Fold this protein.
Amino acid sequence: MPKTKSKAVRLAGSHVITTCATVAAILLFVVLGSEVVPAALRGARLPDSASTLKVAFLLNIAIILFGWRRSKDLREALEDYEAAERLAQRNANTDPTTGLANRRELMRSLEDALAAPAGGIFLVLDLDHFKRVNDLHGHLAGDKVLLRVAEASKAAVPSDACCARTGGDEFAMLLPSSNEEAAEAVARQILEELSAPVLIEGAQIQVTASIGFSRLADCKNEEVVLRHSDVALYAAKRAGRNGFAWFDEELERELTDRLKLEEDIRNGIKAGEFVPFFQPLVDLNSREIIGFEALARWRSPDRGLVEAEAFIETAERNGLIGPLTLNVLEQALKEARAWPPHLKLAVNVSPVQFRDAMLAEHILKLLATTGFPASRLEIEITEGSLLEDRDQVLTIIRSLKNVGVSISLDDFGTGYASLAQVNRLPLDRIKIDKSFITTIVKSEQTAAIVSTIAGLGHNLDVPITAEGVESEQIRNALADFGCAEAQGWLFGRPISAEAVRNFLAMGSNDAAKTADNSPTPNSRRSSTSRRP
Ligand code: C2E
Ligand code: MG
Ligand code: MG
């Protein structure tokens, strides 16, 4: 930009000089003309000394013509430069996909707004699961969705607001007024507009968004405004998305804790603090152990022994679930290699991990390096995997099945999978979620659901495992429904690798004996729910 500017200045300078020279030539023309033209008109012969005057007069006419032409060219060149400069300026401040202001322009407006005493409200808008739109319908459709959000946003904000796209699927708006009701009305209008499905690139696409608000009056600088609105956005996402939330300090503390947890998980993986615990899988009728499910535990120096439930979701959100699971899997495979050969090992794979096209390769490599037989490994996937890129998920599953790994569908009943979707997956087993199992003896309705799933498994020839079996009463009910396998505190809690080794060294196959070795992790479980 400064280069363009200095060129424009140079052009303007040349234009001024050329114009001055032309004006001077015109003045000279008038003076010379007053001598030469009347004599010429009178037909009088000019003295010889005056012929120089004649030449000068003709030259003067040439200079005027040249000067006028040059001045015109310079003026046009200057106008072109100014237009180019204006365009470059606009491009530098505009998001090319949506035509809205970009982050740089927004930050400038925010700086001005913070300097003025008038206050105002800042909001950030983030599309929910936008990646899915791109993955399922392509980037062209994705861009059209962004354009639609831009239009909905522009239509909702007052004309003096700054409306910007600040990144991939993130938008931000600076509302000059501090009126919170008006700001919420803006949010509602945008969310309502977006909620209507539209036909884009031949597909019905519906997107939702989450919005976070911060009050400029509470913020001393731009950094605080952005942090406040991010905290509020996080709250809106956590409250179920497709909504808005305002910043509050309690939320900020929560977010700080979450960031600390993320940081600790990241460091914990590097320090080898994540280990597999093993919970027995038993034959429901004979109660014999047929294998173990590896469940990640975190031996944290600050937090104690932490159960998977407390960190898996965070690890999924920040991209750490892949390294964490593969690390735990490697340890589990090394451990299970020494078990009697009839015992299988089940491990969990998160839906997020299916975004890694190399997932099957990573698992196969671990099987090869640890020497654990693929036929004894069972990978537990959840219905959430079906929401990821379907083709990629199926390719990964097939690669694993080709070498003899079996696949089970974990936590069945908690997700969104239709029976048709489940039927299309090459499943070897379905595990009914523990939320159903723990209540079957209390609720006839739940018992009916479990009985139906068991019947479904029977018809599809897919064996059913019940997880969360906590009492004999539940076990008996499940046996009546025809469930083949079970897992739960009744048969044994997750125990350390060492405890499994000790148990197996006893040569017993009675899962109940593993319970004696159960450590009590930092748990929310009550002692009344321990094995009777
Ligand atoms: P899941 O695979 O469904 O594992 C069963 C969960 O239920 C485990 O919780 C287990 O400790 C608990 N449980 C077992 N028996 C009973 C019972 O009788 N009653 C009750 N109320 N609960 C029981 P945990 O270990 O906290 O794991 C939670 C989830 O975290 C697992 O659910 C699994 O989806 C995930 N997870 C665990 N380890 C890993 C891992 O290494 N990688 C990945 N991606 N996910 C993991
Ligand atoms: Mg599982
Ligand atoms: Mg489960």
